[in-house]
Design a protein that fits this description.
29% helix, 196 residues, 20% strand, two-stranded antiparallel ribbon, 5 helices, alpha+beta, seven-stranded mixed beta sheet
């Protein structure tokens, strides 16, 4: 006689195909992976529930605008602008920021000046003079943000103030009281845009 097992036996007779039917619900929730392919699970659209977004687009945009205003209203302080590119003798670009230099004005790149030898491109010379001074070195500026990508201020390269240097070298005009003596000296020396 074969030995009797102590484990309880399931005496319920099973009908053909009954096990297969019991596994069907579990199969519907599985995704079968075969090679590099994955089957899409079957989803009953009647069981889905639409949930409203926690933030509507208008509120999100308003929040981003408010954050930008906070940035623009930060207290003035020194700003660092790496890899500056001189567009003209009053305008520099650093990455996506346009920097407008304060306290002096220089001729635009296409401006012509008169001299005893005839007209010459003083605007391009002014731009080139500033380019030679800057040479892609980081600017340190003190000013204000007009918006998120335009800054207006006074800038230095190391210890050299750009406004002071441009006026003293004769490449700019100014109405600033502290720079007027340098302007007069450049005019008397006939250097830069003041040459004969």
């Amino acid at each position: 006689a074969s030995p009797q097992s102590d484990a309880p036996q399931d005496e319920t007779p099973r009908q053909p195909g009954e096990t297969q039917r019991q596994m069907e619900p579990a199969k519907r929730n599985l995704r079968i992976i075969d090679g590099d392919e994955m089957t899409v699970p079957v989803i009953n659209s009647k069981e889905l529930e639409r949930i409203a977004p926690t933030t509507v687009p208008e509120e999100k945009n308003a929040g981003e605008t408010a954050r930008k205003k906070v940035v623009l209203q930060k207290p003035p302080g020194p700003e660092q602008f790496p890899q500056p590119l001189v567009l003209d003798a009053n305008t520099i670009v650093s990455r996506e920021v346009t920097i407008l230099l304060n306290r002096f004005t220089s001729p635009k790149p296409d401006a012509m000046c008169a001299s005893a030898e005839g007209e010459w491109n003083c605007g391009n010379y002014s731009k080139s003079a500033l380019q030679r001074l800057v040479r892609s070195r980081t600017l340190t500026c003190l000013g204000v943000w007009e918006n998120e990508d335009v800054y207006v201020g006074d800038c230095n390269i190391g210890p050299t103030d750009l406004a002071t240097w441009m006026v003293s070298q004769g490449w700019a005009r100014t109405e600033e009281a502290d720079l007027l003596p340098m302007l007069q000296e450049a005019q008397l020396a006939k250097i830069g845009i003041w040459r004969d």
